[in-house]
Amino acid sequence: MLLLFVGSLLFHVAGTWTLPLVDRDEPRFAEASREMLERGDYVVPFLNDKYRFDKPPLTYWAHTVSYRIFGENDFAARFPSALAAAFTALLLFHWGHRIGGERLGWWAALIFTICLQVFIQAKAAVADMWLVLFVTAAHWAGYELLRDRLGGATPVSHPAAPQRRWWWLFYCALACGFLAKGPIAWTPLLTVAGAKFFLPEVKLNRRFLFTTGILFMLSIVAVWGIPALVRTEGRFFEVGIGKHVVARSVVAMEGHGGKSLWSYLISLPFYFVLLFGSFLPWSVKLPWLAKRLWQTRDPLDNYLLAGTAVVFVLFTLVKTKLPHYTLPAFPLLALLLAKALADLPNASRFVRRAAIIGAFAALVTVCTTPFLRAYAPALQLVEQARPDLKPEMEFGAMEYKEPSLIWYFRKHVKGFLSDLDDDTIGPFMERPGGRFVVLPTSSVPEVFPAVPPEWKSYRTQGLNAAKGRWVDLTLLLKRE
Q1: What is the reported pLDDT for 467?
Q2: Is the domain of 42 the same as that of 98?
Q3: Nearest C-alpha neighbor of 279 from the set 112, 110, 134
Q4: What pTM, to 2 d.p., does this model score?
Q5: What angle separates helix 299-317 from helix 270-278, to the nearest 10 degrees?
Q6: What integer pLDDT is reported at residue 235 of this predicted model?
Q7: Which of 311, 318, 364, 455 is deepest in the core (most CB within 10 A)?
Q8: Residue 112: closest CA among 329, 351, 354, 334
Q9: CB 16 within 8 A of CB 82
Q10: Of 131, 48, 144, which is closest to residue 394 (Cα–Cα)?
C-alpha cells in the first residue's frame, strides 16, 4: 500500500514545481485559495477581491492546507490534486482486490494512474481529481451494498444485510463530491438506479435507504451551503448552479462547444472519439473490450458500464464540452479493463509494456516543463520586474487580464489587479504612489506617447494558453 501510494504520488507531483500554472482555471483556483487564507474566510471564496461562485469550497480548503505546509507556490497549488489521484489509486486497488484478487487491484490502479487524462489532471490545480476521488468512493460503496448480487473474490458473510459502513461511505462521498465540484458528484445515484434494469429483483431502497441517505447527504452540504447562501443573499446558488451547471448544459460557455444546433449535433460523439486519446496507452484495448462486453457480461460488468455510461451520456448531452469532463468514469473503465484482462493469456506482458511506454512518455513530458517557463508571459514579467516590486504598489492590466497575472504578481504585491482600458490606464498611472501596468506592446505608443524617463519598462513574449495566441506584453512601472 505504501509503495502504491508513494509511487503514484511521486509520479503525479513530478514536474509540478517547474511548469507554470496554465490556462485560466489553475491560477483562478490557486489565487482564490490564497485569498481565502488571507481573509480567514472559509465559507465564500473570492478572486481578485470579488466573489467567486464557480465552484464549492473543498478544493480551496485543500489548497489552503497545502499553502500552510509548502508556501504559496505552483507546487503547493498542484499538490492536492496529486494527493487525490494517489488516494484514488488506493481505492481502486482495494476495490479491485475485492472483485478479483490482488493482481486485478494492482492492474486497475496502474491503468488509472498511467493514463493520459489522469496524468494531466492530477498535475493541475483544479477540482477534478477531488471529484474523481469521491465519485469513485461512492461507486465502490454502491458496489459493496450490492455485492451479494454483483459478485466478488471472497464470499459475503451476510448477503441480506450489507455492512452499514458502506452506506455511510456512500452518502458521505456524495456530499464531499458535491463540495468539490457540485451536483455532478451525484452520478453514482444514477448508477445505482440503473442497476434496477439488470437486478430487477433487488430491493434497492432496503439497501440504500434513499430518503434517509439523501437527507443525511444534504445536511452535510448544508453545514457550508446555508451560511454561504445567507451571506451572499442566494447569489452563490444562482451563479454556482444556475450559470455553471444549468447554463453550461444548454449554452457553450467560454468557447467550449458548438453554438449552433448543427455544431452541437456534430459534437455529440466528441467524448467517445476523444476517449481513444485521453485513455492512452490503454485505449488500444478498448475495441477488444467493447467486443468482449457486447458478447458476454456479468452483473458487475453491467454495474461498471452503467456508471461509465451515465457520465458519458450526461456530458455528451451538455452543450459546453471540455476533454476532462468525463474523467469520473476513468476509474470504472480501469476496473472494467483490468477485470477483462485478468482472464486473457499473456495479459501481464501487455500491462507491463503499456505501463512502461506510458511512464516513459510521462517522464519525457515532465523533462520538457522547465523549457515552458520561457513562454509564460506573466511569470516572465514578474521575474524581470521582481527587484522593483513593493508590497504597497498598485497594479493593473489592459487587454491581457489573465488570472495568471494576479497569481504571480500578488506574491509580491498585496493589492488587487485593476481592470483598465484606453481611457483609464493613463489616469491610473498618474496617481501618486508606486504602481505598474501590463499592456500589449503595440498599445504602448498610443496610450503613452512619451513614457516618462523615470519609469521602468519590461517586455516579454509568450503564449496565452487560454486563447491559444502568441502575445507581446510590456510592463511599465512607476516606483513612486
Answers
A1: 84
A2: yes
A3: 112
A4: 0.93
A5: 120
A6: 86
A7: 311
A8: 334
A9: yes
A10: 48
| Number of structural domains the chain divides into | 2
Q: What is the pLDDT of residues 348-368, one digit of tens each?
A: 999 999 999 999 999 899 988
Q: Which three cell numbers stand for residue 262?
A: 448543427
Whether 236 has a pLDDT exceeding 60, the answer reads yes
Same domain, 266 and 391: no
Read off the C-alpha cell for 6: 508513494
- Tell me the C-alpha distance between 57 and 36, whole Å: 10
Question: Is residue 404 classed as helix, strand or coil in its secondary structure?
Answer: helix
Domain identity same for 187 and 300: yes
Give residue-wise pLDDT tens across range 149-205.
Answer: 997 665 554 444 557 899 999 999 999 999 999 999 999 999 999 999 999 999 999
CA–CA distance, 61 with 20 (Å, rounded to integer) = 21
Q: What type of residue sits at position 301?
A: D
What value does the CA radius of gyration of the chain take, rounded to a whole number of Å? 25
Specify whether 354 is located in the same domain as 382. no
Residue whose C-alpha cell is 495566441:
469
DSSP state at residue 20: P
Query: Residue 260 pLDDT more than 90?
Result: no
The answer, yes or no, to whether residue 211 has pLDDT greater than 90, is yes
* Long-range pairs of 46-53 with CB within 8 A, sequence gap ≥ 24: 47/403, 47/406, 48/403, 48/406, 48/416, 48/417, 49/416, 51/232, 51/235, 51/236, 52/28, 53/232, 53/235, 53/236, 53/238, 53/239, 53/240, 53/243, 53/244
DSSP string, 85-136: HHHHHHHHHHHHHHHH-HHHHHHHHHHHHS-HHHHHHTTSSSSHHHHHHHHH
81 shares a domain with 63: yes
Looking at the structure, do residues 380 and 338 belong to the same domain, yes or no? no
d(CA 116, CA 52): 30
User: 80: cis peptide before it, omega within 30°?
Assistant: no
To which H or E segment does residue 326 belong?
Answer: none
Please give the residue range of the domain that contains residue 448. Answer: 376-478
